[in-house]
Every structure is written in structure tokens, then in C-alpha cells.
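Quiz preparation item.
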């Protein structure tokens, strides 16, 4: 592979989808059935799924319902419709979910000072759902820990479950049923879900493309963020955009600061199923860089792009997470680069589900996984950072055939992205790899010249 260099590159218009693909209601019933099979194999009598606004992905995955303002609790038994516990404001919304659920009004899930006079005690509701002394209950939240005894759902729920099941029962963390990095239900996606993720990636990557090509000194950060053209899809994280001294903090929301020539700059835009991020300097060429970092491309961006290009080239079904991490550790292991998080992770409705990528990981990538190229240098120096965050999916021949047959326009966009990455960027992808972003691995380090990007093409 040739060494990375900066070149003038024409970024194609890959097209935009007209409508968002819809998940059929039957898909939710199939997911619930698969979850019940796993619960039965582990010996659980009931599953309790906790959700709030920030952590609604598992509940939405299973039911198509995500709580607004309030928390919600799903109780899944071995048969029949599951039960959803909701507060005052979500009671009606839960009734419109594509998965049939029996609703319990449990007003302690409502906002402070709202009425609490029409719901039964939690112990009574749980007992009516078959949770009793000696029951084995798996609690699904959004994290796993070293011990199954650690559960991040609110204490008032976990305490009541433990009181109800008593010393002969079991209440433990079962979140891995959905998010285990090797085979959790939410990390292996159906073709319908991958099509929705491609739509989502079109929205976020098109927004970043507009920002990269529309950014101008003198804009405020709030004016710049409008270029993302958010269409109202649920966000997977808050909009991030910062410039100047604040940019090194990364996760901040836009403010009223005016963007100046020479500023470091970072932006990230994520909705359910997709996120894109880029970072660089608000300059037209190296001569405008701050003093002391005129070799920004040679010192940081070039080695980074070399590493990311090799990482992309190594992606395939059956590849281990450890092999992907080794590429980044080998190429960017110098403390200068400051890379310390996993070199890539799984993405779903939530921005970070889990990660099979870690030093020594033997977890093999599987067909249906959606992954985020999320390799972030944190130099802590005046060189600031550089960043490519885009989404990809892995699909075997059968899944690729199903995608092409069911979603031909999206499939053509994917094939066009693959050709661009090969021809213009010099990144040869395995046939398993489906790039979902419309700025696929496109990295312009000088943001006032977005037509100049990194490439390893000869």
C-alpha cells in the first residue's frame, strides 16, 4: 500500500434515499421469540427490560416503542404478549407500538409532581406478571459488568425485584443477551435493519458533507451546525461542534463563538443507526496552520490515514477484533497519537453498543454486524486531532443478495461508495464490507479546501 498523501479528489454525489425503509411488525415478534429462546436457555423465568430516554435502544429494538420524557419497563414472560409499565405521558404512545403489549400504568415512572393516584404498587404489578419468590429474573439495561450482580437499572426497580424473588430467587444482569459483542441479538442485524441504517447514514453523512463544503470563517458555531440539516430523526447523541480552544474537548455542543481562520475544528452528527465525525483545521493549506504544526499532515494525518486504510482493508467476516486492534496499535502506538479507546465498535440505535475490537480479542466479526470506524487520536498537543468516523456493515453472500434484491437503490449507493474508496482513495474492501456513509473515509485535513483529501491510491 502506498503512503498516504494529500490530493485533489472529486467526491461523487452518491444520491439520497427518498423515504426511510420501514421495519415490518413481524420483525419485532421474531426478535421477541429469539430473546425468549435465549432466556429459556439461561434458565430465566422472566426478563425485565429497563429503558429511559438516553438508553432506549433495547426496548425500541424489541417493541418499536421508545419512551419520551419518562422511563419504561418491559416484562417478558415465556409466552403471550409482554407487559409494558409506563407513566402518564407514555401510556398512549406505547399502545401504538408495532409489537402488541399489555399496558400497566405505573405512575412512579412519570415526571416529578405529576399525578400518582391511579397506579398499583410495583410489587403488585410484578407479582401479577409471574415474578414471585424463587423466580429467576434477568434484567436488561444498557451495560454489562464483570459481575452479573451489578445492575444499572434504578434501585427502586432492582430492590423490588430482589425483595419479591427473595433469597431463593435470582436477579441478575442479562444485558449481554442483547449486546454481547460476539453474538448479542442487537449486534447481528437483519437485512431490513441494515437498510434503515443505510438511510440513517445518508442523513448524517450528507449533513457533514454540506458542512465540510459550506464552512466559512466568521460563521458562528450555531450557524455552522445548521448546515447539518437535521431532519428530525431521533438523535443517538447530542450534536457536537466546537472550534478554537474548546475543540480539544471534543464532546461539546455548538455555541455563539465565531469560527476563525486557523481554528482547530471538530463536528459529530449521530442519529439512530449512524454517526459521522470529522476534525481538522479551518485553513486552506499548511501555510495557514498555527505556528509549530505546519507538518500537521505529515506528522499526524498521514500516519493516521495509513492506519485507517489498513484497518478498512482488513475488515471481513471471520476477522478477529484483536487483529483490527493490532493494526492501530502497531501504526499509532506512539504516545504522541494518544489513541486509547477501542479501534472501532458496533453501532445500532445507540451510538455505541459494544466492541469486539480490543487487544488480544478472539471475537470474530459476523455477517449482519454494523460497525463504526471510530479511531480517535487524542494528541493533547497543538497538533489537535484528525478523525474519520463512518459506518459500515458486514454481509455474507446470502445477506448481500437479499439486500440487493430488496433495496436496489441503496445497494447501488453502496457499490458506488466501494468503487470510490478503491479508485480514489486506494482502499480495497473485501466483498463482505458495505460502506454506508456518503463521505466514505473521505478526510480533508484543511477544511477550507474540502476538495483536497487523503488517499493511498497510487
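Solution:
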Amino acid at each position: 500500500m502506498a503512503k498516504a498523501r494529500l490530493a485533489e479528489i472529486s467526491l461523487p454525489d452518491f444520491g439520497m434515499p427518498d423515504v426511510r425503509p420501514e421495519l415490518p411488525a413481524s420483525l419485532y415478534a421474531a426478535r421477541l421469540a429469539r430473546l425468549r429462546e435465549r432466556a429459556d436457555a439461561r434458565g430465566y423465568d422472566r426478563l425485565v427490560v429497563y429503558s429511559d430516554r438516553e438508553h432506549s435502544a433495547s426496548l425500541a429494538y424489541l417493541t418499536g416503542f421508545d419512551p419520551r420524557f419518562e422511563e419504561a419497563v418491559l416484562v417478558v414472560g415465556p409466552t403471550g404478549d409482554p407487559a409494558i409499565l409506563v407513566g402518564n405521558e407514555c401510556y398512549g404512545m406505547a399502545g401504538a407500538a408495532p409489537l402488541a403489549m399489555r399496558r400497566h400504568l405505573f405512575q412512579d415512572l412519570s415526571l416529578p409532581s405529576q399525578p400518582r393516584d391511579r397506579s398499583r404498587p410495583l410489587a403488585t404489578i410484578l407479582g401479577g406478571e409471574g415474578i414471585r419468590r424463587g423466580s429467576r429474573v434477568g434484567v436488561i439495561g444498557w451495560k454489562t459488568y464483570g459481575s452479573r450482580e451489578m445492575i444499572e437499572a434504578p434501585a427502586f426497580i432492582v430492590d423490588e425485584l430482589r425483595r419479591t424473588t427473595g433469597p431463593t430467587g435470582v436477579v441478575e444482569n442479562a444485558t449481554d443477551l442483547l449486546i454481547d459483542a460476539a453474538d448479542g441479538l442487537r449486534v447481528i442485524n437483519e437485512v431490513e435493519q441494515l437498510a434503515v441504517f443505510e438511510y440513517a447514514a445518508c442523513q448524517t453523512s450528507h449533513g457533514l458533507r454540506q458542512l465540510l463544503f459550506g464552512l466559512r470563517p466568521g460563521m458562528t458555531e450555531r450557524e455552522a451546525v445548521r448546515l447539518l440539516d437535521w431532519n428530525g430523526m431521533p438523535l443517538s447523541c447530542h450534536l457536537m461542534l466546537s472550534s478554537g480552544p474548546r475543540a480539544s474537548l471534543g464532546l461539546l455542543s455548538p455555541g455563539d463563538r465565531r469560527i476563525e481562520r486557523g481554528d482547530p475544528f471538530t463536528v459529530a452528527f449521530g442519529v439512530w443507526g449512524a454517526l459521522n465525525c470529522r476534525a481538522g483545521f479551518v485553513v486552506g493549506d499548511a501555510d495557514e496552520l498555527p505556528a509549530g504544526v505546519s507538518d500537521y499532515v505529515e506528522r499526524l494525518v498521514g500516519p493516521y490515514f495509513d492506519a485507517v486504510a489498513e484497518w478498512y482493508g482488513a475488515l471481513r467476516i471471520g476477522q478477529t477484533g484483536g487483529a483490527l486492534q493490532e493494526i492501530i496499535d502497531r501504526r499509532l502506538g506512539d504516545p504522541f497519537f494518544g489513541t486509547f479507546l477501542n479501534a472501532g465498535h458496533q453501532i445500532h440505535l445507540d451510538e455505541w453498543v459494544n466492541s469486539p475490537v480490543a487487544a488480544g480479542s478472539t471475537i470474530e466479526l459476523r455477517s449482519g454486524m454494523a460497525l463504526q470506524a471510530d479511531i480517535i487520536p487524542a494528541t493533547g498537543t497543538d497538533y489537535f486531532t484528525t478523525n474519520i468516523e463512518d459506518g459500515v456493515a458486514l454481509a455474507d453472500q446470502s445477506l448481500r443478495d437479499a439486500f440487493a434484491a430488496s433495496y436496489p437503490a441503496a445497494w447501488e449507493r453502496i457499490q458506488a461508495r466501494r468503487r470510490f474508496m478503491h479508485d480514489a482513495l486506494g482502499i480495497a474492501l473485501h466483498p463482505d464490507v458495505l460502506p454506508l456513509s456518503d463521505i466514505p473515509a473521505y478526510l480533508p485535513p484543511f477544511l477550507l479546501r474540502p476538495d483536497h483529501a487523503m488517499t493511498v491510491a497510487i
